[in-house]
Amino acid sequence: MTREAVLLVNLGSPASPSAPDVRRYLDEFLMDPYVLDLPAFARTLLVRGLILNTRPAKSAEAYAKIWTAEGSPLVVISRQTRAALESHMQLPVGLAMRYGEPSIAHGLDELLSRAGNIDELVVVALYPHYAMASTKTVEVAVDAALQGKNVRYRFLPPFYNDPGYLDALSARLRSDMPADPTFLLFSYHGIPERHVRKMDPTGAHCLRSADCCSTPSPAWATCYRHQVLATMDGVAQRLGLSKDAYGFAFQSRLGGGWLAGIAMVAREMGNAAVRVTQRHDCHFVPEQAAVFAVVAQQHPAGFATAQGVAQPVAPILFPVIGLQQTQVSSRKLRR
Question: Rounded distance, CA 223 to CA 231, Å?
Fold first, then answer.
């Protein structure tokens, strides 16, 4: 019988909502060339010469608004998920963060020392959708951390279309939606269009045509835009929504050349009677609380044109997904 161990990897969090801790976290995060893919000199100048001198204090205030007595919501929920998965599967399960602590190196050392002799390590990046700034950088970091350790390992593929994941999202939404929703907006974390193109293994498919995300291609395996749209359609189908009853947007858009942002969609919709906005970020699995807070702060009137009503539905899905994910992961981990 093959003996496996599982390493869950999430984004990470500052050690505290203090400005110095947020500054250290942002430095590690933004200096990652898979996140900010600029030449090293330009990246250093932008991050350490500008951003880290202006943003930490403001970001610390935002973190303080969602911080709990137990700590960062992302870290707390990730720990709960690790424990639930280990109990469910009866396998050693570890936890690491791409940025901050426990680092990937520390998470691996703790897991491997506890697991003993294993035949295979399964690495699960807690991102349903593949992206250069999330999944890819985890793969690169894990590869580096395991170099020379003589450990056989594999990465779990993105689970954006896993039936268990879609069922969990749909069930949570169904329980929170009003009886007469006019429109359901799916909002996802924005990324630069160049990141989508860079992850296209064919070099000739992603964002090359208006229907690229509905035209089958090997590029779908690493295409963030296709995968979030597939998640949206899978959930909408389960909820019985017609095509004109739901849509999507990308938030956290920084300048031009990014996938369409949430404010842009609000303007395009004009005076449409948008009564229901589903706020969840399926890209960073347990990070919905932070993303929701950012959107609420940056776009307080985000859909004010919609007859003054924008009702967020199910902003934090992970408490449900965390339970369902033990089933999703166990099916895939067992091949």
Answer: 12
DSSP 8-state class, residue 48: I
As for how many domains the chain has, the answer is 2
- My answer on whether 135 and 281 are in the same domain is no
pLDDT in tens, 10-50: 999 999 999 999 999 999 999 999 999 999 999 999 999 99
For residue 325, what are the domain limits? 4-159+320-333
Closest CA to 75 of 97, 52, 94: 97
Query: What pTM value is reported for the model?
Result: 0.83
Residue 187: which CATH number? Answer: 3.40.50.1400
d(CA 125, CA 136): 9
The residue behind tokens 């880290």 is: 52
